[in-house]
Write a sequence for this structure.
């Protein structure tokens, strides 16, 4: 983020940012700048010494969704698709090509530079889906039943 | 003080200082690892905490507040995404049933008259103890640069929403000031990190 933007926010809020990992407070694990009028001394320093109860990914999912990891690096909600979070790899699938195109367009730069993310073709998406149907293990990762998925409240979870 | 760019730095008020001093004093009395416990949170009054969450998403903040065993008097979730609002509603039916969870679809809809209506919602007539939010920051970082052009920054359609946080916070500060005995709001604004870290897809 440009210094100009930081200064602008500081000017308006009257405080300088404090960089903390969001996992100290939330189900997301990622560094963020926090602007707050709470004294910095009140903020937890790290997860080792922080014994506050912190929300996990599971706690923000709507049952019967199952979280495989305690924290996700990026949590996105939108309609018509789910992204699965696994401990081994980044695995996601979508319902239709329109969504894939949208996802690829929005996140192309991120994927190209990423360590593990990449665009999935429709064929790959379908393979993931069929693999899931065959595999008990993968099936256990499912966020919900098909009926449940048809409801609007769905999740995209991208994580390692 | 001019911090460059022609912007004037805001001065801390006595009220802000006293509020911070209150929290520091309480924190010093406690074990550091047990910060922000119930004792500290008596700051929020007997009726419970009143929260205004902007760009709230699926309201993980509300999960955190519940985990602190904080009593919630009013939680106003402002989120444009309908699916996210549905997730929040599904996860917090208890508050929804008591009309303690209120949704505002668009931050642009929040004005003095809407806040005046919210002031009368909940067990007590009051302002907001806590204003939290993290406006869309794609224009500050990589997504604003998809086509190789300059980032839209604060002038982008999404980037300029940060001013909505400032605007609403200012409205809440004025609203709280008009309510006798109600503290100045605590705010937390969260935003993405520096450019050098944007290559990390996990960030």
């Amino acid at each position: 983020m440009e210094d100009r933007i930081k200064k602008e926010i500081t000017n308006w809020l009257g405080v300088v940012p404090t960089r903390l990992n969001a996992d100290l407070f939330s189900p997301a694990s990622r560094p963020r700048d926090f602007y707050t009028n709470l004294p910095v001394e009140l903020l937890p320093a790290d997860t080792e010494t922080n014994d506050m109860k912190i929300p996990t990914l599971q706690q923000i999912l709507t049952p019967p969704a199952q979280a495989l990891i305690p924290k996700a690096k990026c949590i996105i909600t939108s309609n018509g698709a789910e992204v699965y979070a696994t401990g081994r790899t980044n695995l996601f699938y979508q319902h239709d090509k329109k969504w894939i195109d949208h996802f690829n367009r929005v996140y192309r730069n991120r994927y190209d530079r990423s360590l593990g993310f990449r665009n999935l073709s429709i064929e790959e998406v379908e393979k993931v889906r069929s693999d899931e149907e065959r595999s008990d293990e993968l099936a256990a990762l499912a966020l919900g039943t098909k009926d449940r998925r048809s409801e609007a409240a769905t999740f995209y979870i991208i994580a390692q | 003080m001019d911090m460059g760019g022609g912007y004037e730095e805001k001065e801390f008020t006595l009220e802000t200082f006293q509020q911070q001093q209150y929290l520091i004093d309480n924190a010093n009395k406690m074990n550091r690892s047990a910060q922000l416990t119930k004792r500290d949170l008596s700051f929020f009054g007997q009726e419970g905490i009143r929260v205004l969450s902007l760009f709230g998403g699926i309201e993980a903040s509300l999960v955190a507040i519940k985990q602190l065993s904080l009593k919630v008097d009013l939680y106003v979730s402002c989120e444009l995404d309908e699916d996210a609002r549905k997730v929040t509603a599904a996860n917090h039916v208890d508050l929804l049933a008591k009309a303690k969870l209120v949704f505002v679809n668009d931050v642009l809809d929040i004005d003095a008259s809407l806040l005046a209506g919210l002031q009368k919602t909940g067990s007590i007539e009051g302002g907001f103890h806590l204003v939290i939010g993290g406006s869309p920051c794609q224009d500050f970082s990589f997504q604003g640069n998809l086509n190789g052009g300059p980032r839209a920054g604060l002038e982008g359609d999404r980037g300029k929403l940060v001013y909505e946080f400032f605007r609403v916070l200012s409205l809440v500060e004025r609203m709280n000031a008009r309510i006798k005995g109600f503290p100045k709001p605590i705010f937390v604004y969260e935003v993405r990190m520096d450019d050098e870290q944007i290559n990390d897809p996990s960030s």
